Amino acid sequence: MSQVPLPITTLFAPDYPIMTDRLRLRPFSRGDVDAVYSYRSRPDVSEFLFDQPMSHEECAEAVRIRAGQLAFSGEGDKILLAVERQDDGRLIGEVSLIWRSVADRQAELGYILHPDAHGHGYATEAAAALLAFGFDVVGLHRVYARCDAKNLASAKVMQRLGMREEAHFREHAQFKGRWDEEFVYAILESEWRQSR
């Protein structure tokens, strides 16, 4: 049973924390502001995000909002969790699942990690835990993820999760003063089950 107080309208929520082999996925708290600022303030992190590098005050507000994004009550709801290493307790990033369609049972997956934590498989491990929640608990049919076409590391995470490239949108929108190119990857519940 979850120890986190949830809204009374909650339909689906993980039991917190979600534990993986090396990680603890948990709701954000006010004490996370400095850790979030350590990566969300960096230009190399914001390069492929819709946000610009965040100020300390913007990070504080983002953490305040994220602290309440921990359950699904309806379409558009987000579960946005801090990714923390078990061995040293360091917060290294965040992972999200957004309930995009109730009728079509679809959600969008996302992840952001501190560059110091890149290359260790943490994004794949954290994202896989949210995929499991989405398919096993929520009963989703399809989960998709998107990334800038230049962000090949993110595309590789999606591939390691068993997701297929469904689209490559070329120059489809203006993004930070340039034409954006975007990959869309997805995985169906049946594909997820076959891969386990």
List keywords for this structure.
8-stranded mixed β-sheet; N-acetyltransferase; single chain; alpha+beta; Aminopeptidase; 8 strands; Acyl_CoA_acyltransferase; 196 residues
Short précis:
One of its GO terms (molecular function) is acyltransferase activity, transferring groups other than amino-acyl groups. About 30% of the residues lie in helices and about 30% in strands.
Describe it:
This protein is α+β, with helices and mostly antiparallel strands and 196 residues long. The protein has a domain at 18-141: Aminopeptidase (3-Layer(aba) Sandwich). Helix content is 29%, strand content 32%. It is built from six helices and eight strands. It has helices at residues 33-40, 43-46, 56-66, 122-138, 152-160, 189-195; strands at residues 18-19, 23-26, 78-85, 91-101, 106-113, 142-148, 164-175, 178-188. It has an eight-stranded mixed beta sheet, with helices on both faces. Strand 3 (78-85) and strand 4 form a beta hairpin. Helix 1 (33-40) packs across helix 3. The chain starts with 17 loop residues before the first strand and ends with a helix. The model has no long low-confidence stretch (mean pLDDT 93).
SSE blueprint and pairings:
Blueprint: E1 18-19, E2 23-26, H1 33-40, H2 43-46, H3 56-66, E3 78-85, E4 91-101, E5 106-113, H4 122-138, E6 142-148, H5 152-160, E7 164-175, E8 178-188, H6 189-195
Parallel strand pairs: 5-6
Antiparallel strand pairs: 1-2, 2-3, 3-4, 4-5, 6-8, 7-8
Helix pairs in contact: 1-3
Pfam families: Acetyltransf_3
Protein name: GNAT family N-acetyltransferase
Organism: Devosia nanyangense
